[in-house]
Predict the 3D structure of the following.
Amino acid sequence: MLLPFLCAPAAGQFPAESTIPKEKRRPRPMAKAPTGPTPRTKDGKPDLSAAWGYSGYTSDIAKDYDVGQVPMTPIAEKLFKARQANQGIEDPEARCLPTGVPRRDPYPSKIIQTPDLVLILFEGNIHSYRQIFLNEHEHPKDLDPTWYGHSIGKWEGDELVVDTIGFNGKTWLDLAGHPTSDQLHVIERYSRPDFGHLKLVITIEDPVMYTKPWEVTEITPILQGEIIEYICNENNLDVPHLVGSKE
């Protein structure tokens, strides 16, 4: 499997980039990807189907924000500072629990697009998947809270707009520890500006953790090759090395 377009995360995640003034941060080059025309399906919609690499936001989803710009509530700020102080010892992902939405781990993923359903297959973490239902116009009223929530999507021009609710409140938005609650509401706008790039504009709403909605734009390069099997639980050596871990 060849991974020439995958950009790996930086080695250090603490302190988070968003806690360092922008003028003191070092720029990180992103992987290059081929350009060319956007592939389209038979009905003329952009074809998002492909294996995609790493966009560079798994360590800190707020890395494009300056210090203090993320609109955290006092509850969220307290949680975030505690997680920074203990270097993410309680991160669910480090214990092979799902990353949730919109967090990406630094492993590739694959999108499979059909007229009624879009699937996102994750290589990393628990080797899991998301379902985005294109034939549903509203969320069920009796949703059971889950890690990935319930996602419905619709096309607005060349953008696939995905609305997700029904979260269990256990996920972190990133390794840095930006928190969520069960009131999290995520809106994702997927587009493919050219052959080699996937653009994702994310709007995060959570009245418990954030005073207003805030937005992140991620650009992901295409992956040459396929995703492979990765089982987090198998020979997991991370947990004993987490700062302060007693396991």
